[in-house]
Design a protein that fits this description.
This protein is an alpha/beta fold. The protein folds into two domains: 245 residues, Aspartate Aminotransferase, domain 2 (3-Layer(aba) Sandwich), CATH 3.40.640; 132 residues, Aspartate Aminotransferase, domain 1 (Alpha-Beta Complex), CATH 3.90.1150.10. The chain is 36% helix and 13% strand. The protein has twelve helices and 13 strands. The strands form three sheets. The protein has a seven-stranded mixed beta sheet with strand order 1-9-8-5-4-2-3, with helices on both faces. A three-stranded antiparallel beta sheet has the order 7-6-10, with no helix packed on it. Helix 1 packs antiparallel against helix 8, helix 2 packs parallel to helix 8 and helix 3 packs across helix 4. The longest helix has 19 residues. The chain starts with 16 loop residues before the first helix and ends with a helix. The mean pLDDT is 96.
Length: 397
Amino acid sequence: MGEVFTGNFTQQEKLPDAALAAADAVLRHGRLHRYNTVDGEIAETALLEEEFAASTGASYALAVASGGYALGCALRACGVKPGDPVLTNAFTLAPVPGAIAGVGAIPVFVGVTESLVIDMDDLAAKMGQAKILLLSHMRGHICDMDRLMRLCDGAGVTVIEDCAHTMGAAWNGCPTGRWGRMGCFSTQTYKHINSGEGGLLISDDAEAMARAVLLSGSYIMYGSHRAAPPPEAFADLRFEVPNVSGRMDNLRAAILRPQLKALKRQAGRWNDRYAKMTAGLADVPGLTLPVRPPKEQFVASSFQFLLLDWAAVDVAAVVTGCAARGVELKWFGAAEPVGFTSRYDSWRYAPGAVMPGTDRVLAGLLDMRLPLTFSLDDCAMIARIIRDVVHNVRGVT
């Protein structure tokens, strides 16, 4: 059979000692609610928001209960109403169209390219159908943001960025989340900083962020937010914006703050593992690696490759063959969704037209988590196993 990998694809690194100490302090004083503070105390959640805004260069930041909540909150804050169409990627994860459906709006799917980014030509063709684009930087792949913003600005389309997979990443030096009106991030366990569940929003738009703060459940206590707009931004909105509570608590914020400080170093470690995988699979016949342009400064916590135009039975054989040797691949082209691999034709609450080019990409798309618990030698072994299995299925010697 050859080499067998014995690592765990879902086991993340332990939390750093500084995070454990910060969590212990919050648990001991018991003030978990973000607005429960004593005189002279600054809530951990408020400090996290301030630090995250500074790290991205954004004017404002808001910590919330999950990445999915951040998406829904941003949509509401940008004025999306029930029945409104919202453009979004056909290649994304279910929480993205779910957030659109969750506010009563209607997803309008845009195609994906072989580089796993939104298809600009398809986007240009569909611009007249909606006034909002919820852009998913799916699996950390960042499109040409200069071109995308020219398209959207020219058509009067507001961009909200789903940055669940791109915390710490940038296009041409500008961080993701800073291109559109609002940027949404996740701190769920498999993301770049880990609080189990959690999310963050950033913006330079005072009105949109004031709406988001009120939506999140501030109960008019927005004055305790250190990374929020000034009080005058809330003056009239506080009477008209509903409370859709989704606050982050101080325990999760305390866990996240030390991880945020270490993000740049951790990003480098993830990219070292991605580079090792890329080197190991760079010249495998029949296997295509997504192109990563020089302007894309990505953070690679996962790895994707394509078996373009392969028969479904052969792609399935690669998945099965790798699994038998300890390598867990997720296939977006299977007949039925498995785990998180659902795709645009799986979301029956959001029917859309068939997109043959996108279907071709998804039919051959394989995805793999790349946790930091893997060593560089582990990544080299995983690449050798994938290479070997692909060769065997293709009959290459």
